[in-house]
Amino acid sequence: MDFLSYFSSWFDYFMSMMVGFQDKEASLVVIGLDNAGKTTLLHRLRTGTVRQFVPTERVSEHNFTIAGITFQGFDLGGHDAVRHLWEDYYLDTDAIIFMVDSCDVRRFEEAKDEIQELLDYDPINEKPIVVLSNKVDRSDATHLDDIIKALGLDDKALNSREAPIKIFETSVVKGIGVEEAFKWLSTKL
Ligand code: G3D
Ligand code: MG
Fold first, then answer.
1. Closest residue (by CA) to atom 5 of ligand 1?
2. Pairwise pLDDT comparison (60 vs 107), residue with the higher score
3. What's the pTM?
C-alpha cells in the first residue's frame, strides 16, 4: 500500500473510531492501572494498527493530537507520588477515559480505589468519564454487572456526579465497543 492510501485508510479508520468528534476540538486523558490496555488503545488510535510491545519498549503516549483531538495517557496505581500531578493532567482535559482489565480480578480492589478517588476529586466533577471494561474478547473476562459491583459504580455513585459517567465493555485488540464509547462521549462534550 502506498503512503497516501495507507494514510487515508488509517484516517478513515480513526474517524470511524472517533465518530461524533468530527469538527470538535477536545482533550482526552486515558488512565487506569498498568496493563489495562491504554498503550494499545492509544497506539491503535494513533496509527490504526494493533501491535505487540515488548515490555521495555513502551511508546511515549503523551500529548499527541489527531484531527483536533489531543490524547494523553498515564498509569495509575502503586505510586501515590503521581497524585500531585493530577491537577496538571485533569484540569485542561475535557473528559477522562478510565480503563480496567476485566480479566484481572486480583486488581479490581486497586482499580476501585483509583476510580473512587477520581469520583471524589471535586475539580473534575463537571467532566464526563468513560469507563472501559477492556479485554472482553478473553474467555476469563468478568461480566459487566460484576465489574460495576467490583468498582463500586452503582447508580448512586454514578448519579452523584454533575457530569455523566458510563461504562462500556471493550476489546481494544478486536476493536469491540470502542467506537460506541467514543460516540457516547462525543455527545457529552
Ligand atoms: P497499559 O498501557 O494500560 O499498561 P497495554 O496496557 O496497552 O500495554 O496492554 C497490556 C497488555 O494487555 C498487552 O499484552 C496488550 O496486548 C493486552 N491487551 C490490551 N488490550 C487488550 C484487549 O482488548 N484484549 C486482549 N486480549 N488483550 C489486550 P502483552 O502481552 O503485550 O503484555
Ligand atoms: Mg502503557
1. 37
2. 107
3. 0.91
